[in-house]
UniProtKB/TrEMBL annotation:
<keyword id="KW-0564">Palmitate</keyword>
<keyword id="KW-0472">Membrane</keyword>
<dbReference type="InterPro" id="IPR050490">
    <property type="entry name" value="Bact_solute-bd_prot1"/>
</dbReference>
<protein>
    <submittedName>
        <fullName>Extracellular solute-binding protein</fullName>
    </submittedName>
</protein>
<keyword id="KW-0449">Lipoprotein</keyword>
<dbReference type="Pfam" id="PF01547">
    <property type="entry name" value="SBP_bac_1"/>
</dbReference>
<feature type="signal peptide">
    <location>
        <begin position="1"/>
        <end position="23"/>
    </location>
</feature>
<keyword id="KW-1003">Cell membrane</keyword>
<keyword id="KW-0732">Signal</keyword>
<dbReference type="InterPro" id="IPR006059">
    <property type="entry name" value="SBP"/>
</dbReference>
């Protein structure tokens, strides 16, 4: 806990002098001639490479390499866009997508192995792999070759970083004379008071004590010592929590919460707008969400005194204070070089630029002088960025910054875009070591991947549908539990778990 805090503090205080100040790092300068390369980048069903993205224009000035996108926005599905691209007779020079797909298609010949190019042309990538060995493991296919350069959500070595946390209406607590809950039982009692004691003062029982944009209740399951998906167990393996007794008991308890009106009646249907809708109408009491965006709502709704503040995770039924949802170091995407690329050496040098200090700054903060300034070694976004409609991340993404490809996103950039309340929540979870280790990015053999492809989607769909029936009260947990577990076994859940464990054993061996 203290170690991770010190490391982050050092990163924030000693930040980032450019290589001219002497980091012992080689900057990528590129060749003498300008080079045009085509790139396929279509991710998350909405993010499509734009030739006019400002940070790529800036990178062109520094490297002599200009990228031109081939993906089109008229195809809304990233998976469909990827399949369509692969069907073309000639592939684009660079392919950006999920690491799993890049490795699989690399082994089939669509992308070329990169390890020799990395050794000869990419000192920054070599350094990255040394500092972040899990990135090299993730990038290595089961045939032993590296087919893509992965990217990260934070620089290596910072430990288990927060992403989300609990928020609660401090103004409602004050109105009812209540203290911030510190245990799951206290949290239940506070939510019950929110429901029954009219904290918004309008004379109606219209408060919605707990809501969530995603409709996934993993943050509440953890309060009962339960998991609802794959997780790292205490024996050093991987388990699937949704068949365990702790999960069964958690579902029963949350079904009770729902029946008592403590959980949003539209938890599974209200969707992404629930936070905006319920806070703007003075109806929402507590949630679990991103620190940066959630902490911004107090400034938006000063009229009725909204005071929505981060709080520590309530201690679970075993007395443990922890946060299961955190920031994986790898975001799972990256880019590789296609078989039709005529300039693999220059392309690798271009990739290497993005893993340099200069490239990392450009990717994380945007363009110096335009998007951010440096004062006394501290990086600060300019007011236009800080006050941008939609927030700092949306502004940066419109310039191509913080888009997920083979680059490092420095955590300082996220913190620089946070208000003081968001930083308070982030640091609370960081300094107290609440965040638990996250599932690593695993590489599966063809046989393992076939098992997962054949069964996992159906298993997850069945679990989600059954969970909703239980939470909504449509079916009794005790009466249907045995059949639920038996059905999952008939859907080959054990085979899927075995595939995950085999991949995890290899991951540990390769990491060590």
């Amino acid at each position: 806990m203290k170690k991770s805090t010190r490391v982050l503090a050092a990163a924030l205080c000693g930040i980032l002098l450019l290589p001219a100040a002497g980091c012992g790092e080689k900057e990528t300068t590129g060749g003498d001639e300008n080079l045009d390369l085509s790139v396929h980048l279509h991710i998350y069903d909405y993010c499509v490479f734009d030739d006019d993205w400002a940070i790529f224009k800036e990178a062109e000035e520094k490297t002599g390499v200009a990228l031109h996108g081939t993906a089109v926005e008229t195809i809304s599905s990233s998976a469909q866009a990827f399949s369509t691209m692969l069907a073309d007779r000639t592939l684009p020079d660079i392919i950006a997508y999920t690491g799993d797909e890049l490795k699989e298609n690399g082994m089939q010949g669509a992308l070329i192995p990169l390890e020799d190019l990395i050794e000869e042309h990419a000192p920054n990538i070599q350094k990255f792999f040394e500092e972040c060995p899990e990135a090299k493991v993730a990038a290595t296919a089961t045939d032993g070759h590296i087919y893509y350069i992965p990217g990260t959500l934070a620089q290596p070595g910072l430990g288990n970083l927060p992403s989300m946390g609990f928020f609660i209406r401090q103004d409602w607590l004050d109105a009812l004379g209540l203290e911030t809950p510190t245990t799951v039982d206290e949290y239940y009692n506070v939510l019950k008071a929110f429901r029954e004691q009219d904290p918004n003062g309008n004379g109606q029982q219209d408060e919605i004590p707990y809501f969530k944009r995603s409709g996934v209740l993993d943050d509440l399951y953890q309060l009962f010592g339960a998991k609802n998906s794959f997780y790292l167990n205490a024996d050093g393996g991987i388990s699937y929590g949704a068949t365990e007794e702790a999960y069964k008991n958690a579902v029963k308890e949350l079904a009770k919460w729902y029946s008592e009106g403590l959980i949003d009646k539209e938890i599974y249907t209200r969707g992404e707008q629930s936070r905006e809708q319920l806070l703007s109408s003075n109806l929402g009491g507590s949630t679990h969400d991103w620190f940066s965006s959630t902490a911004s709502y107090n400034d938006k709704y000063l009229g009725f005194g909204l005071n929505f503040v981060p709080m520590a995770p309530p201690a679970d039924i075993n007395g443990v204070v922890k946060e299961d949802i955190g920031r994986s170091i790898l975001h799972g995407l990256g880019w590789g070089i296609s078989k039709d690329n005529k300039n693999p050496e220059r392309t690798m040098e271009y990739f290497d630029f993005w893993l340099s200090e200069e490239g990392t700054l450009l990717h994380s903060f945007g363009i110096e002088g335009k998007d951010y300034t440096v004062e006394n070694g501290e990086y600060q976004f300019v007011p236009e960025v800080l006050n941008a409609e939609g927030g700092v991340p949306a502004y940066l993404r419109n310039e191509g910054a913080v888009v997920e490809f083979g680059a490092i996103n420095r955590i300082e950039a996220e913190l620089a875009g946070m208000n003081d309340l968001a930083k308070e929540g982030f640091n609370m979870y960081l300094d107290n070591g609440y965040v638990q280790p996250q599932m690593p990015s695993l590489g599966f053999t063809e046989e393992e991947q076939n098992v997962i492809n054949a069964h996992l989607t159906d298993i997850q769909t069945f679990c989600k549908e059954q969970e909703q029936k239980w939470i909504l009260g449509a079916e009794d947990v005790d009466a249907t539990w045995d059949n639920y577990v038996a059905t999952l076994q008939s859907m080959n859940l054990d085979q899927v778990i075995a595939a995950y464990n085999s991949a995890y054993v290899r991951y540990q061996q390769e990491l060590n």
